[in-house]
Amino acid sequence: MDAAAKMTSKGQVTVPKVVRDALGIEAGDEVVFRVEGNRAVLARTPDFLDLAGSITVPAAKRNVAWDEVIRRTRSTRSTSRR
């Protein structure tokens, strides 16, 4: 799908309705722009709370302080590079 829009003198662009509908973007939603060469890609920013429970955490890593998880990860990486 292609949709055109014009930039205002303030650098603002209205996202065409067909694009908003296709991406499920509503007022107040956040979007992200990624520059790829000479074009920009617009995407809806995911709600990270929607991802809760989508990844299984091994029992050994549950209820562990974040600092400890980072320490273990770094320790594992440093021993595996040798």
Question: How would you characterize the overall build of this protein?
Answer:
The structure is a single chain. The chain has 82 residues and is of the alpha+beta class. It has a domain at 54-80. Helices cover 27% and strands 15% of the residues. It has two helices and two strands. It has helices spanning 17-23, 66-80; strands at residues 31-36, 39-44. It has a two-stranded antiparallel sheet. Strand 1 (31-36) and strand 2 form a beta hairpin. The radius of gyration is 21 Å and the shape is elongated.
Number of strands: 2
Range of helix content: 25-40%
The gyration radius over C-alpha positions equals 21 Å
Order of helices and strands: HEEH
Largest sheet: 2 strands, antiparallel
Number of helices: 2
* Overall pLDDT: 86
Structure keywords:
82 residues, alpha+beta, 2 helices, 27% helix, 15% strand
Give the gist of this structure.
With 82 residues, this protein is an alpha+beta fold.
Write the layout of secondary structure elements.
Layout: H1 17-23, E1 31-36, E2 39-44, H2 66-80
Antiparallel strand pairs: 1-2
